[in-house]
Amino acid sequence: MSLRSTIDSQEVDDLELVTRTRAGDRASFDELVNRHAAKVFRLARHITRNDAEAEDFLQDAFYKAYTRLDQFNADAQFYTWLVRIAVNEALMRLRKRRNNKTVSLDAELETEDGSLRREAVSPDDNPEQEFSRDETRKLLEEAIDSLDEGYRTVFVLRDVEGMSTQETADLLELSISAVKSRLLRARLQLRDKLKGRLHSHG
Amino acid sequence: MAKKKITCQSFLDDLSDYIDGDVAQEIRVTFEAHLAKCPNCWVVFDETQRTVEIFQGYDCHPLPENVKGRLLQTLSVKLKNA
Fold first, then answer.
1. What is the distance between the alpha carbons of residues B68 and B82, in angstroms, rounded to a whole number?
2. Which end of chain B is less enclosed by CB atoms within 10 A, N or C?
């Protein structure tokens, strides 16, 4: 009897897989890993900015999820719960290796004095046209990597992972206004970085 | 002059919400009127919106197949002892 084939052959939701895992079925946990590993890796890689560290962290996140599965509340989404473990793990690792560089993340944005680049561009100017998909992806990855941690994490959760402002605020223990402010700054910085990089190749 | 500065600033403050479609209808109408007459804010809005769309359309850092294999293998060993 193969539990794996049972999982593959029908739609089983995450909650059912969690229940089966709790009952001792390891194949069900492997299926949860299969479903969510890519997203957790992407999140880890964005936060840590390091492939090896992201892989290491990926293993720890799933290991911790497995050992804490009895704490999972069935009213929650498994992925959201997993992301919480993953983000906490990634931020903890980051803090360990980070120097004490501090920046003001939540200061007011200014519209004067050129703090925002506003040079006019053609509405038809499409930065993707000159690059292959892989090249563009690499530029995007580098642009995200270059953001400060506070902006990067908020941007990744909101715009890459598609979490809501409230979910992001809860996860990072920030106020709604701090999440919004950081998201805006991240987006504006990425706009500048992307434009500069892509134009330098053009 | 002073009025325009305030308008640009308040638009910028809510730019993310505007891009996300997360502003009240009356504010949206006000912003649209502002965008129609303020090329600077329009450029910021347009470029920022396109930046967000580009990021949302790409799967950055895809999971390498060998990483997934090692993950399952490592978990298999570790979870036996868990």
1. 20
2. N
The position carrying tokens 């036996």 is B80
The verdict on a CB contact (< 8 Å) between B61 and A45 is yes
Whole-number mean pLDDT of chain A? 80
Residue A152 contacts residue A47 (beta carbons within 8 Å): yes
pLDDT at residue A195, as a whole number: 81
Report the number of distinct structural domains present in chain B. Answer: 1
Q: Domain A133-201 carries which CATH code? A: 1.10.10.10
CA-based nearest distance A188→chain B, Å: 6
Q: Domain A3-97, what fold? A: Rna Polymerase Sigma Factor; Chain: A (1.10.1740)
pLDDT in tens, A139-166: 899 999 999 999 999 999 999 988 899 9
A contacts of B6 (beta carbons < 8 Å): none
Mean of pLDDT values over A11-35: 93
> In this complex, do A184 and B16 lie within 8 Å of one another by their Cβ atoms?
yes
pLDDT at B56: 86
Percent of chain A with pLDDT over 70: 74
